[in-house]
Structures are given as C-alpha cells and as structure tokens.
Design brief:
Elements: H1 2-33, H2 50-83, H3 101-130, E1 140-147, E2 150-155, E3 160-163, E4 165-169, E5 173-180, E6 185-189, E7 193-198, E8 204-209, E9 214-219, E10 232-238, H4 240-251, H5 259-268, E11 299-300, E12 305-306, H6 309-322, H7 344-354
Parallel strand pairs: 1-5, 4-10
Antiparallel strand pairs: 1-2, 2-3, 5-8, 6-7, 9-10, 11-12
Helix pairs in contact: 2-3, 5-7, 6-7
Bound molecules: dinuclear copper ion.
Dinuclear copper ion (CUA) binds next to loops.
C-alpha cells in the first residue's frame, strides 16, 4: 500500500503536473496570440477598410449565432441527461416516445431562420463586392499583375508604375484590377482587401476604401510555385497630401547626372536592362520590378527583405539562395559564362546608385 501511494505520488509529480502545466501553457499561448491589439497587420479581426469591416461584421454575426446554437444544444443535452437519467428503483425501459410534430416543426424552422440571417447578408455582400466592373466616379484605378514571385503595380490615370508596394490615399475609393499572365495568384491585404484571385486570361476586381493611415502587409494567397511564401507586398495608406507627394515623386524619371549614376549606368544599361525598367535610362523591360524609385520602397525582393544597402547587395549577389526559383539570376561573378557576372565592386556601384533613387 505504502509502495502504491509512493508510486502514485511519484506519478503525480512526474506526469500529471507537467501535463497540466503544458496544457495551461498551451492554452495561454493560444489566448495570448489573440492579444496583439491590432499590432500585427495580418490580423483579420481588426479591419481597416469598408470592405474588410463588412466581412468582419458577417464573421461576427456567424460567430454569435454559432455560440448561441452551441449553448442551446449543449444546454438541452445536459438538461436531458440530468432529468432523464436512471434513478434507483426504476425497472425496465422508460416510456418510449415516437415523433413530436410541434418539436419537429420548431427545429426545422429555427435553423432556417438562423441560416437566412447568415445567408442574406453574406450573399448580398458577395454580389456587392463583385459588382464593380464599372469604376466609381472618383476611384483611383490600380492595375495589379501577379508575377512569379512579385507584384507589378500600375496607376494608369496617374502615370505611375511600381512594384511590391502600393500607396493609396485615406478615404478614397480604390479599384484594383487583378490579373496574371502566368499562373493563378491571389491578392490579399488582410486588414484592407479581402483575398481575390489573380487569374490568367481574366480580370478580377476588388474595391475598397482604406480607413486608417499606416503600412499594411499583403501576401499572395494562392499557391503559385517555389517562392509562393515569399511573394509579399506592402500597402501604404497615406493622408491625401502625402499621397499627392508620393505620386509627384514617382512620376519623375531617375536623375542620371549624379556621380553615382554615371558610375552605375554601364551596368544598369547592360546586365540589368535585360529585365528591368529604370526610367531615365535605356532600361525598359517589364520582366522584373521597375527600379526607378526603388529607394522609396520599404522592402525589396517582394517584401521579404528590408530595403538596406546590405540586403540589396545580398539580393543582387545571390538572389536564388534568398528566393528559390527566382527569375533574377545570381549576379555574382562565377565564371565568364554566368549571366550577370558582376564583381563585388560592380555590385557596390549599383547598390550605391539604387540607394539614392527615392
Ligand atoms: Cu503568387 Cu502564391
């Protein structure tokens, strides 16, 4: 007996306590994950546009109805289990009941009512959010093209072309035309724009009005190949004044008269011009991101690296080790047959100029 008690105590200390501890720690982690108070811009529960707010409202409606149903069903179950449990002194089966018309009508009509309450707002929102083939009166149009693996953005009315970072003014309707010329991607900015596919051979539309100034993370949300997970972008919501300034600067060609420019031009107009555009130079290809104002962007390599000279050098030197399958070949000099074959000094020269292109 003594032995058993000691074993049992030992078991309690060695197994049960840690198990309960792990369970509590796990629960705490799950709960803490919900406590970012909107710090993370990937949190769909904190909407910052008219579009995501409407989705969040529907989500909330479904959540509360589901909770009510759960409590109702579990409550009735508990009631039945307690009330009709076997008591001492009872013999044989209880009285058998078959069918109850009133109850059956009730539990058919009640779910129909709840489903309608969820379905009507959901379906009407889906139609409202799709019916935007014609742009709103004062909408700013953006053409978004999904590439492998980055986003090309163009503002046709403003004459701005950029990549992996879009700016929009606060409170203005933005109409994004989503396209792809390769595989299917999906445009997703959790707090501003819901997921919508970018399809080859088809134009999808998404329309929203941002409600809070800030920088929001976006991510391709449709598996599209090797570097799908590294296909990100940023959406910056500016005040109308800041947006005007941004547009004015983005429209300008690059200044090619500086010393840094003169040193870098042979390489930009050589190797880089095979894929990139850099307005002000002869580089005008659209296979790769537009570099004209690359220094104005917060991140490089489609949102995966902070835009610093060190990261830019790393990226040009060995892009494929950072983003598997990248069409940008490693720039470092390997042998004379390599595509770019840039020496470390040449890469420094390019980085020095690109870093000035605000
Ligand atoms: Cu593009 Cu996933």
């Amino acid at each position: 007996m003594k032995e058993i008690r000691s074993v049992s105590r030992h078991w309690h200390q060695s197994r049960a306590l840690p198990t309960i501890g792990y369970a509590l720690a796990g629960l705490a982690l799950v709960l803490l994950a919900g406590c970012d108070e909107g710090q993370s811009t990937m949190n769909t529960l904190v909407p910052h546009s008219d579009l995501t707010r409407q989705i969040s409202d529907i989500y909330g409606r479904i959540f509360w109805w589901t909770l009510l149903l759960f409590i109702g069903v579990q409550g009735m179950l508990l009631y039945a289990v307690l009330k009709f449990r076997e008591r001492g002194g009872e013999k044989g089966n209880p009285e058998q009941v078959h069918g109850n018309l009133r109850l059956e009508i009730t539990w058919t009509i009640l779910p129909v009512f709840i489903l309608l309450h969820i379905a009507i707002p959901t379906v009407s929102f889906i139609f409202r959010s799709q019916a935007d083939a014609t742009p709103a009166e004062d909408a700013i149009e953006i053409n978004a093209l999904g590439m492998q693996w980055w986003f090309a953005f163009e503002y046709p009315d403003l004459g701005v072309t950029t990549a992996n970072e879009i700016h929009v003014p606060l409170g203005r309707t933005i109409e994004v035309r989503l396209q792809s010329d390769n595989v299917i991607h999906a445009f997703w900015v959790p707090q501003i724009a819901a997921k919508r596919d970018m399809m080859p051979g088809r134009v999808n539309h998404i329309k929203f009005k941002a409600e809070k100034v800030g920088t929001y993370l976006g991510q391709c949300a449709e598996y599209c190949g090797d570097s799908h997970a590294f296909m990100r972008f940023e959406l910056v919501v500016d005040t109308p004044e800041d947006f005007e300034k941004w547009v004015a600067r983005q429209k300008e060609p690059a200044d090619v008269t500086t010393a840094e420019a003169k040193a870098a031009l042979p390489i930009i107009e050589g190797q880089c011009s095979a894929c990139h555009t850099l307005r002000g130079t002869i580089a005008a290809q659209k296979t790769a991101p537009d570099l004209t104002h690359i220094a104005s962007r917060g991140r490089i390599a489609s949102g995966i690296l902070e835009n610093t000279p060190e990261n830019l050098k790393r990226w040009i030197t060995s892009s494929r080790s950072i983003k598997p399958g990248s069409k940008m070949t490693d720039g470092a000099k390997i042998d004379e047959s390599a595509t770019m074959n840039l020496s470390s000094e040449q890469i420094d020269t390019v980085v020095a100029w690109l870093g000035t292109l605000k």
